[in-house]
Amino acid sequence: ETIVKGHPALAARVRREGDDLFDGDAKLSVSIATSTPVSTKIHFGINVIAEGAPVTAAGLSDYGIEAEPFADAVLLAYAAEMRGVREVRCRVRGVE
Hints:
The protein is of the alpha+beta class. 32% of the residues lie in helices and 25% in strands. The protein contains two helices and five strands. The longest helix is centred in the C-terminal third of the chain and has 25 residues, at 67-91.
């Protein structure tokens, strides 16, 4: 919500299904989260221009949102989230 706070109508319409974001039937993102025996992987992409997508899609350009400031906001929010995760992780003792 904070990422689209300058676009309250969009924030009200966007919903999350699993790892993906939708506006109605239009898919706004592509994402996957998985783990292997040695690591974890998170991949997230948001459509900038939806033209040519193999599914019904929407992109940032459809909402008049510039990609670079949007990306900066997403990355700052992600970094803050990871700091919070790290802080909580450091406060919890291991369980045997």
